[in-house]
Design goal:
Length: 580
């Protein structure tokens, strides 16, 4: 039996919030002003509004390009298993035309100095410029050391779609989907423009709504919505935040738009009317919704959404299609808070697997060491069970990340201390075993060394979670350790040891002096880094055991240095102060 909680609860809350504050109205006013000034900036207290003109000269070619890493930093990289992050080439060029303008850069610097919050806005073609500006600022804030924290929000009105599926997925992965709200009028052509152009070859008015046709629709359109969509009408507004639901809703309501293109063009110009009526009509609909006679909360939520958008049962097939996709979203997406609770139960269930690994580590620390014991393990039942627990824990965390990226958990999930601490402990405990397995099976010879070529996505995400926690911690402790850490604080420490050992062997066979000097420099940097960790007691005791891989590295490095000192003519570059 389907749960009775409303699929639209969080959407109604977002709609009510936006309707109860002057944020949308203030942004729209500045968008109108920007039409005459290219772009406009206005400060209201510590909040700065930045709006872009919707009157732009652009020829949409349907070509998509990758984001410039110099502008958008790490965000522009490919998602593992998802493909390249790409956006519309012409719309990206519009943003870059502002990005390189000295006056725009100067004013944005002033905004960053004076504001606690920045709200970007844009109507029509100004919408993608606003979205990319917000995205640029979000990436800039992450990498720059600002004097004070700045929140970023973006509101667009009748904006065309901007990027592909990986672009939308990357925004969810960064937990930035809540920073974007796209206001869409019921018959506005522009947000549906890409879909209509792609369907122009004989498919313009035929809507494919059954699940067997999903691949055909995906082939027709490579664009994907991102963030929140606020569908508004003269009766109120409904917010949706699931990309699949938004796409299907745009498709299902497209019939009315394509049957009367003139109304679609007219609706694109009516946002001032919709924004002006938003607060009053939304509160009115909330009051009247109590009298809706439906059989369940689910039906009430769907009826409320359709009534708000002015879609009645007389408008076939639009009504049937919209009902179908809203009901589908209802079935596919349980409330995120409930998913959070389920995840807490699942986390408790995997604790025994983690405890068994801790027990294994305690035994190994008195012998060869945690890392080296697992790397050289035999076929005993105990070690087989340890390996199975490693795989079970990995599956749990991969499933958790998958739920996050599919937007099934709350947006602040990655900031909850329970999961930040648990994921970091898991990383420090289990990643050494992942590294041991990687080098035990010789994958470094096939793919390259672990840190660059073999590290699982989950560990990179957990690095980011922990790093964000460290940045937001107001109190910093500088206490010196009195004993060695329970777990080595660099989870990739053993991978760096393995790479350093391989570099020593490479030096021995390297004839090119320049190349040999670079290899020696890398070894020297790691040796100093590792020595610093040992001195600060940031390593576990297994690192210092007599037969550990780290001590093997030290012995090999000591022997190589001795050879270098007795044969300086062969290593003249190395003798210029690289190693003391």
């Amino acid at each position: 039996m389907a749960p009775e909680t409303s699929q639209f609860e969080s959407c109604e809350m977002l709609g009510a919030f936006l309707a109860s504050i002057p944020l949308v109205e203030e942004t729209w006013r500045l968008c109108c002003r920007a039409n005459a000034e290219s772009f406009a900036i206005k400060a209201v207290g510590r909040v700065s509004y930045v709006a872009f003109s919707g009157v732009q000269a652009v020829a949409r070619s349907q070509d998509m390009v990758e984001l410039d890493q110099n502008v958008f930093g790490p965000f522009s990289r490919c998602l593992e298993g998802k493909g390249k992050i790409m956006v519309d080439a012409a719309l990206l060029q519009l943003f870059l035309s502002f990005y390189v303008r000295p006056d725009f850069n100067q004013k944005m610097l002033e905004v960053l100095k004076q504001s606690k919050s920045v709200v970007f806005g844009g109507h029509s073609l100004g919408g993608p410029i606003a979205s990319l500006s917000a995205l640029w600022l979000l990436t800039h804030i992450r990498t720059a050391s600002l004097a004070h924290p700045i929140s970023v929000f973006c509101i667009t009105f009748g904006s065309p779609m901007l990027g592909n599926g990986p672009f939308s997925q990357a925004i969810i992965q960064e937990r930035w989907d809540g920073n974007f709200c796209h206001v869409v009028a019921p018959h506005d052509l522009v947000p549906r423009l890409v879909s209509m152009i792609k369907l122009a070859d004989g498919e313009k008015t035929r809507l494919r709504l059954d699940n067997d046709q999903d691949q055909d629709q995906e082939r027709c359109s490579s664009y994907s919505p991102f963030g929140n969509y606020m569908f508004c009408s003269d009766k109120g507004a409904v917010c949706l935040d699931n990309a699949t639901t938004i796409t299907r809703f745009l498709y299902s309501t497209m019939a009315a738009t394509t049957s009367s293109p003139a109304s679609g063009v007219e609706d694109h110009r009516k946002y001032e009317d919709y924004v002006g009526m938003l607060s009053y009509q939304y509160l009115k609909m909330r009051c009247s919704s109590a009298t809706t006679h439906c059989g369940s909360n689910s039906e009430a939520g769907i009826a409320f959404a359709l009534q708000t958008l002015g879609i009645s049962s007389h408008q076939e097939p639009t009504y049937r299609a919209a009902t179908t996709w809203l009901a589908t979203a209802r079935r596919l997406g349980w409330p995120r808070s409930l998913n959070n609770a389920k995840m807490a139960v699942s986390l408790a269930k995997i604790n025994p697997f983690r405890a068994e690994l801790e027990w294994y580590k305690k035994i190994c620390d008195d012998q060869l060491g945690y890392y080296d014991s697992f790397k050289t393990r035999g076929a005993s039942r105990r070690e087989f069970k340890v390996n199975m627990n490693r795989l079970r824990l990995g599956r749990f965390w991969d499933q958790l990340i998958e739920q996050m990226e599919s937007n099934q958990l709350t947006r602040d999930f990655h900031k909850l201390p329970k999961y930040v601490n648990a994921s970091n402990f898991y990383k420090l405990l289990v990643e050494p075993l992942e590294i041991a397995e990687y080098y035990r099976t010789g994958k470094h010879r096939e793919k390259g060394h672990y840190v660059e070529h073999g590290r699982q996505k989950r560990f990179k995400i957990f690095d980011k979670w922990w790093g964000d926690k460290e940045e937001t911690t107001t109190t910093t402790t500088t206490t010196t350790r009195s004993k060695y850490a329970y777990l080595t604080q660099d989870s990739c420490f053993w991978a760096r040891v393995e790479e350093a050992i391989c570099l020593i062997y490479d030096v021995v066979g390297e004839r090119d002096a320049g190349r040999r000097g670079m290899l020696l420099d890398k070894i020297d940097k790691f040796e100093r880094y590792a020595r610093g960790m040992v001195e600060r007691m940031e390593v576990s005791v297994d690192v210092l055991l007599k037969n550990s891989s780290y001590n093997l590295f030290r012995d090999e490095w000591r022997e190589l240095r001795a050879q270098l000192q007795t044969s300086p003519s062969h290593f003249h570059q190395f003798q210029d102060g690289m190693v003391q």
